[in-house]
Amino acid sequence: MSLSVHLQHDLPDIKLDLSFDAPLGVTVLFGRSGSGKTTVVNAVAGLLRPKAGRVAVDGWELFDTNQNLWLPPHRRRLGYIFQEGRLFPHLTVRQNLSYGRWFAPKHARRENPDKVIEMLGIGHLLDRRPAGLSGGEKQRVAIGRALLASPRLILADEPLAALDDARKAEILPYFERLRDEVSVPILYVTHSAAEVARLATSVVALQDGKVVRHGPASDVMADPSVAPAGVRAVGAVLKVRVQEHHADGLTELEAGGARLFLPRIPHQVGEDLRIRIPAQEVILSSKRPDGLSALNVLEGTVETIRAGDGPGAIVSVQTPAGPVLARVTRRSVTALGLEPGKRCYAVIKTVALAPQDVGGRLSPA
Fold this sequence. Notes:
Layout: E1 3-10, E2 15-22, E3 26-30, H1 37-45, E4 52-57, E5 60-64, E6 69-70, E7 78-81, H2 93-99, H3 113-120, H4 135-147, E8 153-157, H5 165-181, E9 186-189, H6 193-199, E10 202-207, E11 210-215, H7 217-220, E12 235-245, E13 250-255, E14 258-263, E15 272-278, E16 282-285, E17 296-307, E18 312-319, E19 322-329, H8 330-336, E20 343-348, E21 358-359
Parallel strand pairs: 3-9, 3-10, 7-8, 8-9
Antiparallel strand pairs: 1-2, 1-4, 4-5, 5-6, 10-11, 12-13, 12-15, 13-14, 15-21, 16-20, 17-18, 17-20, 18-19
Helix pairs in contact: 2-4, 4-5
């Protein structure tokens, strides 16, 4: 299944004019506040009627202004996951999960409720009401309710924004399973670079109502001009495999023949992952470093150097593990004689690789 979006619309503060096609999986809308992310989601959901455009899911058209076609929201077969669960307080978890199924067409492909309940780990919650659930539990139920409505498309509008870090860490693996195990495209809005790196099959970066970058997370996250947090969000996204769990509490990863170490992670040996390495956690050396505490040293070749308006620069280094980005000063670039084609070493502190930057179950990207 695929998603095709073409929109034109005028708002007081923004003029929307964009197009993108996305494959099955998680398509992340990424950009600064006011870039048009919520407007896109509202148009897809039918909560906003744009001046012109077309949206189709696997060829099934939700609206097309050229054909004067407009399906009302209740006929669009969408599952919507909000920032807060928005569960019905007078219904039990079991009844909330069943709610969407009451409106699904009889011919619609249906998910097995037992499989969804097992996938989300909510079997022990079925007889509870929302008031007795934690924030993370409410979001898991909201995911289940959206999925059991037999949707053609799932919309997730910053679904983790209202949760603390512990609850975010609890919910992210369920979105990963949703991406990898369910054949329904997901349009996902977030400001979090870690969520993009872990979840995105493709990323649509928006700015002032237009698409400024569209592609894999590894490409988009390397561009400081499109990230909401600017250079602070820039980082490399690498494909790795769990190689070994060591007795001293470290996990060894393999990436293109190179070794990386990070604090022990709850993933099995042989499992494929994606990890994000923030550019600000990488330092560069013109020679192989000696006598350092850092365990992760990757030899590579400078690909590009992007200088900012201030004293900093983003250096992309091609390594056996993949492109690694380093945020350094322009003075350091000059002192090290860095230029495209020069050999250098990227040094990454082991403890700098945070758990939230490690994503389970690798999907195509």
